[in-house]
Amino acid sequence: MPVVAALAVAVLFTGGCSGTQGTSLSGDPSESATVVSGSPSPSPTPSLTPPYPTGASGCHDNKGWTAQESRDWARLVVDTPKENYEDEKVKVASLPGYDGPLCREITVQFEFWKLVYGVADGARGERLSDGTKPVYYFDIRRVKRVELRTDGSSERKIALPKSLYASDRSPCVGALLSITVGKPLTSKELPEEIEVGGDESRWDSAPVDFRSKRVADYELSQPSAPQVCSPDGKPTADPADVPTPGSQPTDLYPTDLYPTPDTSFDIDDVLRSPTP
Fold first, then answer.
1. 5, 59, 116, 162: which has the fewest C-beta neighbours closer than 10 Å?
2. Secondary structure of the chain: what % helix, strand, coil (to 5)?
3. Tens digit of each residue's pLDDT (9 = 90 or more) over 141-181
4. CA distances from 104 to 29, 88, 100 (A)
C-alpha cells in the first residue's frame, strides 16, 4: 500500500531541547559499553586491498587523522540494531587487517534520542526547507548516551534503552540513534527536518539531516502512527481507524464509489452441471 512521504520539522514541546544552546541537553546519562572478551569471530579475508591494513605492530597507524577520517572508520566498524543480526544491540568490532585495529583509540558517542510527533495544527506558519508546510512536528530529547574510547581491538556491545524501543510504545514516539566522532552532539547539530513515510516497518532508511559532519551513522525507528497524534504528541484515536495521509483505500469495492447492484445471481446455479 503506497504511502506519500512527508517531512517533519522540529518544534519545541515541553521539555524539549530545540531552544537550548551548547551541549547541555535534557536526559544525559553516560554509560559504559559491554566489553566482550576475546577477538571477534574470524571472517574470510577480503580479496580486495583492505582500506586499513595493519603494520608490523598489528595495528593501523591513525596518527594525525582528521575528524572525517575517524568518522569514515567508525562507519565501517559499527553495526546498528538493524544491521546487527545477533541481537538488538549496537555492535562495534573491526576485522583485523581490514579495518583495524587502530594504533590509537578514538572517541565515539552513541546517543539515543526520543522523538515525539504531533500533527501540525497550521497555526504556527513555519515552512520546510522546500517551501512546503509540515505535516508533523517533532520534539527531540536525549535519553541515553554512551561514550566509547575504542581502537576496534575488542568487540563492544551497547544495549538499547528498553523503554524507548518497547513494542508497546506510543504510536506518536520514534527513536533515533546517532553515532558521532568526538564530543556529544549539541542542539545546533541536531536535525530540524526528518522525512516521514516509507515501508511499514518501524526500522526505515528515511533520511535524517544532521547539521554536523561528525555523524558517522544513524538509525531511525519511526513512530508507528503519527497521523493519530494531537499537536502536543498524544494519541487521539486507534491507528487502525485513521489512514496515513495519501494512503489508498483498502476496500476494493467501497460503497460510495460502486452502487449496490440491482440484480444478483447464485454462483452455485452458474457452476452447476446441466441437467441431462
1. 162
2. 10, 30, 60
3. 999 999 999 999 999 999 999 999 999 999 999 999 999 99
4. 26, 28, 10
Residue ranges making up the domain that contains 138? 6-271
> What contacts 181, CB < 8 A, 6 or more positions away?
67, 70, 71, 74, 106, 107, 108, 109, 214, 216
Domain-located, residue 11: yes
Instruction: Provide the whole-model pTM.
Output: 0.71
Share of the chain above pLDDT 90, in %: 42
Q: Report the SS3 class of residue 181.
A: strand
Into how many domains does the chain fold? 1
DSSP bridge pairs for 111:
145, 178
The pLDDT tens digits of the residues spanning 30-64 come to 555 555 545 555 555 545 678 898 888 889 999 99
Among the listed residues 139, 148, 193, 146, the one whose alpha carbon sits nearest the alpha carbon of residue 170:
139
Position 54 scores a pLDDT of 87
